[in-house]
Amino acid sequence: MNDKRVNQYLILPENGQRKDTKLAVEYDEAQIADYLKQGYVIANHDDFNKLIGNGDGEYLIADDGSVYPKPAPTDAELLAAAKSAKIAELKAERDSKEVEPITYNGNSYDYDDKARERINAAIIALDVQGADASIDWTTADNQDVKVTANDLRMVIAMIAQRSNALHVAYRAAKDKVEAATTVAEVDAVTLNL
Fold first, then answer.
1. Of 19, 25, 68, 189, whose CB neighbour count within 10 A is largest?
2. What is the pTM for the complete model shown?
3. Residue 87 CB-density burial (10 A; 0-12 exposed, 13-18 middle, 19+ buried)
């Protein structure tokens, strides 16, 4: 035990964080000198405590061993984070709206993955039965209606138009986000349909 090194720690800094930590009290001075040559630094008890539970990165450690509070993010860093978050938000909104029910001929039709499969299967079945064939279809609002293959194709066509409008609106909104110079400008961007 090295009584001279009570409440001291050998810390190997890397990118402002602790890559490795050793209790200095467990090593003699020659071993400590070897660790210092490897890039370890000596930290006192107070600095070490700042680094413990530092999951939020509130404190950083420099290569020289000084422990300092993490600087507040710059305006550029805040803007970059806001842009990334807004683009993800806009994309999620676009994707959500793409699968919302759509109204055709006064009826509301689901268009999630399962509904798409059912619509495509029904079109094939109706085509096999002939041009005048129809089936009963349960709409998104639980109404039973007769539909033809052409009705279901029209639902898909309307979905395609909506999808295109959503993607055009998303690209325009994304361009506005990328051109924004302040967080307030980023926050003001919406998916305009």
1. 189
2. 0.67
3. middle
